[in-house]
Structures are given as C-alpha cells and as structure tokens.
Design a protein that fits this description.
Elements lengths: L1 H7 L3 H10 L13 H22 L3 H4 L7 H10 L3 H25 L3 H7 L8 H7 L4 H8 L2 E3 L2 E3 L2 H14 L3 H15 L10 H25 L4 H7 L6
Helix pairs in contact: 1-2, 3-12, 5-6, 6-7, 6-11, 10-11, 12-13
Length: about 240
C-alpha cells in the first residue's frame, strides 16, 4: 500500500516509474501518455494474469467463473468445490453490489423495476428484501444491514458502511462507500494467504491483482486529467499484500 500512497503524491512520470521500480509492472508502463494507452496496457496485464492462473488451476470450471459475470454461477462453482472462503467472498460481493445499487437508485428516485433488473442473486441478503424496502424510509434499510444472517452468525454491515451511506445520502457522493466496500472485500480474501493447499490462494491472488489494476488505473487517470491528490487519497483502498 505504501507504493500506491507514494504514487498519489508524485507527478505522473514519477508515479509510473515508481510502479515499474516496485516490480508491479514492466517498463512499457513508462510510455503511457493517454487513457487509451493505459487501458490497452492494463487489459494486457489482466490477460497475462489470467494465463498464469490457467496454468496453476486444473479445473477449467473454476476458470470459467473468474470474471464474475454471473455471481450466482460463481457461488455454485465454489460451493461445489467446497471452498467456504470463496463462496462467502462471492456472497459478500453480491451483497455489496446490491447495497450500492439500492442506494444509487434510491437517491435518484428511480422506479423499483430498474432495481429489480439490476440486483444480483446469491448474497446473504435476499434480493427480495431490497425490493421490499425500496419504498420505505432509509432507516429501515440501515436497520436491515445491522442483522444479516450468515449461517450461524449475524453480520452487522452497518458498522463499516454507515458513514459511506450517510455521505451518499447527504452529499450524493459514493467515494467513501466505494472505498469501504473495497477494503471489506479485500479483508475477506486475506485468510487465503495462509492456506497451504487448494486453489483458494491462487484465485484470491487473481482477485487481488484485479484490485491493484483498478488502483493503478485510478491513480494514472487522475494524473492524466490533473485531478487533485486529495481526490485520489479518498479513493485509495487497501491492497492484498
């Protein structure tokens, strides 16, 4: 994380050099001078990581769900391979997607039909709960987040989401919420680092690398567009390492 924090406070050229010298990327990153060139390079990096992963995981069914286009399908795959860690990660991911979607549409006063179309299945919170709470005061939604059933325990999502939700409602800003959600999801993956066997460490590494790619994209794009460092600092989430 120190690399990203330092990159935020430097110039574009210095940030690019810092990422290269930290062995996060090759020297081709130094040639980036536009958003198009950046996207091309980052997409190439993502494909390189997927190729590495495909050489480490024998089961192609697992590889088929890594893009997370269908969270319910990914959950079913990880459940069939008895990976509680990755199954729970997908379920939390679905919850976070639905919470952010609910809030965005609620604040914009969009019709409930749009919410129904955008909700993901497979989370700890049933999608029907979001629909039922959509025409009620936001306090009922916050109360629901305090008591989320995760099999034999209760999760209190509001402990870490409440400030982000408050800012989203009052300031129409999702920066704090997005950062908090990303930090939470990385935290869910961390136990995979200490597993000696199985595919979980490899898959968690893949998701963690995607998070790093998104951080690098944010930092470089912000510098290309001359945005203030304070904006980047607010958005800088945790990393897996």
């Amino acid at each position: 994380k120190e690399v990203f924090e330092e990159a935020v406070q430097t110039s574009l050229d210095e940030a690019l050099r810092l990422f290269v010298e930290s062995n996060l990327y090759g020297e081709e990153l130094l040639k980036v001078n536009s958003s198009g060139a950046l996207e091309e390079l980052l997409n190439k990096e993502k494909e390189t990581i997927k190729k590495l992963i495909s050489g480490l995981i024998i089961d192609k069914e697992i590889l088929g769900v890594l893009d997370l286009d269908d969270l319910a399908a990914a959950k079913a795959v990880f459940q069939s391979y008895r990976s509680a860690l990755l199954r729970d990660y997908i379920m939390h991911l679905a919850d976070m997607h639905n919470i952010k979607t609910f809030l965005r549409l609620y604040i914009l006063k969009e019709p409930v039909e749009l919410l129904k179309a955008k909700l993901a299945e497979g989370g700890f919170i049933d999608a029907g709960i979001f629909i039922r709470l959509y025409d009620q005061d936001l306090s009922f939604f916050l109360s629901q987040l305090e008591h989320v059933h995760k099999r034999y325990e209760i999760i209190n999502y509001s402990l870490f989401l409440s400030e982000g939700i408050r800012r989203a409602e009052k300031e129409n800003s999702f920066v704090t919420l997005e950062k908090t959600v990303n930090d939470f999801l990385i935290e869910i993956l961390l136990p995979a680092k200490y597993l000696s066997f199985g595919f979980e460490p490899v898959v968690a590494y893949y998701f963690a690398k995607l998070n790093e790619i998104n951080l690098i994209r944010m930092i470089i794009l912000s510098k290309l567009n001359n945005l203030p460092d304070t904006i980047m600092k607010e958005r800088l989430s945790n990393v897996y390492a």
